[in-house]
Amino acid sequence: MTEAISINRYNLLTVIMKSIIAAGALCALSAPAFAGPYANVENNAAWLGTDLEAGITEVHAGYEFEAGEDVLIYVQAGPAFVYVEDVDTQTEVSGKVGISADLNEDFNLYGEVSFITADQEFNSDDLALGTKVGATYRF
User: Fold this and answer.
1) Which of 28, 23, 20, 26 has its CA nearest to residue 108?
2) What is the domain extent for residue 87?
3) 40, 107, 110, 119: least CB-packed within 10 angstroms?
């Protein structure tokens, strides 16, 4: 059973990372950002056909601030509710820190580092980290 849980967690993290990349690309194309506090609720799920295999819902509080005329930095964290098929839902802690910079009106660079705990512990051996980097060109 432990092996299946590890494989499902690996698949869940893969789906989460891909979803984060897609969300970042969409955010870069959205309306201009504002500086200040915000709330963010996000769900990422993995489906196999019509079966829900795994999912994670993050409920974050965050703060975004301007680091220059065309640069935004944000930090956010909060509980993450992790569902893996045939396993009880677990509550972990997750968070993100990111940066977005407009090089000109058509070109944006962005990056993010995210984490999620294992067994609600901030142990460097078990802390899952993810990164995202990208560029957006607007036509």
Assistant:
1) 28
2) 2-137
3) 119
